[in-house]
Design goal:
Layout: H1 7-19, H2 24-32, H3 49-74, E1 78-89, H4 90-96, E2 102-109, E3 114-119, H5 121-131, H6 147-167, E4 175-182, E5 196-206, E6 209-218, H7 219-222, H8 231-240, H9 244-255, E7 261-264, H10 272-276, E8 294-298, E9 301-311, E10 314-322
Antiparallel strand pairs: 1-5, 2-3, 2-4, 3-6, 5-6, 7-8, 8-9, 9-10
Helix pairs in contact: 3-6
Length: 332
């Protein structure tokens, strides 16, 4: 971006040139000199700022979905938020995490390659403690996971990948699938040490326990869809979400929703002493006569009037009338 000088700055510059304080030839030489910027080949820049912004938006949604999921599973206060999204060599990521941690290695078709969801032991053991009936405290000493603990961990984090698929829907339909769980970072080599990765760091709080969840996505995995992570593609995908197909899908899901349908024969009020004195063969008078239609409710709303009967030796109700909206039912 070119800097625009104010009028005062222009006047000061002209005055300096006139008085000889500044040399015009020196200014020209400085302008023609090549500007050198240091570049670390071990930290290759593969993701643009645009890509980082898109990854941040996607995983902010992921954090919200995870918060809902873990809150429901653990039945306690859970708060997850994106702290930062950065790019760094894979080797640097491995050296930055604890020697004993929870590493969920997974794939997400149609993306090619493996990714890692690293969960700090404080967070993972707090979840485990909560699932096993505790209050969700992190242990003072981290031990090797037992077979039962490993199974519980795999189950809860496998389902957490559904939240990742939901967050990526605006860009690509992916199907994350857990491949393996490791506890030692040295046994996990998903890419070469110098490969650039996108590291999404999520700050996690479970009750009084805090820790980090890190999502490691190698550049080679995202390379085929890098164009979809641009701001232009992002906004196009957001517009697509409101297409008629989405409306039809929503309409279909609503039509498949289940509601209770109740046919009411009538109602009656009796005292507690009368209720306690009921015996086989007693008759309870209802507030409706035999010739009055039955009230058929869908949910808690009166929708139909019908008459009782049988069909193929089963009790049935025939709908005789559709109740218009706003019509109230009165007891007779």
């Amino acid at each position: 971006m070119v800097d625009v000088l104010s009028q005062n700055e222009i006047d000061a510059l002209l005055a300096a040139l006139s008085s000889g304080e500044m040399d015009a030839e020196e200014l020209k030489k400085e302008d023609t000199q090549k500007k050198v910027r240091s570049y670390d080949f071990k930290r290759a820049v593969r993701f643009s700022k645009d890509h980082i912004r898109s990854l941040t938006r996607i995983h902010e949604n992921f954090a919200r979905f995870l918060t809902t999921y873990f809150s429901a599973q653990l039945r306690t206060f859970v708060q997850i938020s994106v702290v930062q999204v950065e790019q760094l060599p894979y080797d640097e990521f491995i050296r930055s995490i604890p020697k004993m941690t929870i590493l969920n290695i997974f794939e997400a078709e149609p993306l090619k390659g493996r990714m890692v969801l690293e969960v700090h032991p404080n967070v993972a053991y707090a979840m485990l403690d909560r699932l096993l009936g505790g209050v969700g405290n992190a242990p003072t000493k981290i031990n090797t996971l037992t077979e039962i603990e490993t199974t519980i961990m795999e189950r809860i984090f496998s389902r957490a990948f559904d939240s990742l698929a939901e967050a990526w829907k605006t860009v690509l339909d992916i199907s994350p699938r857990m491949e393996a769980m490791e506890t030692n970072p040295q046994f996990m080599q998903i890419v070469s040490p110098n490969e650039t990765i996108a590291l999404i760091s999520l700050s996690t709080k479970i009750g009084d326990t805090t820790g980090m969840i890190n999502l490691c996505i190698p550049h080679v995995v995202l390379e085929p869809i890098m164009s979809k992570l641009s701001a232009h593609e992002w906004f196009i995908s957001e517009k697509k979400s409101s297409l008629p197909e989405e409306a039809e899908s929503l309409k279909y899901r609503i039509s498949q929703a289940k509601l209770n349908i109740v046919a009411e024969l009538g109602s009656s009020h009796i005292s507690v002493s009368e209720f306690l004195g009921l015996s086989v063969g007693d008759v309870i008078s209802l507030n409706k006569s035999v010739g009055t239609g039955l009230s058929i409710r869908v949910g808690d709303r009166l929708k139909f009037i019908g008459s009782p009967g049988t069909l193929k030796d089963r009790v049935a109700v025939q709908i005789d009338e559709i109740v218009s909206e706003g019509v109230e039912e009165f007891d007779e």
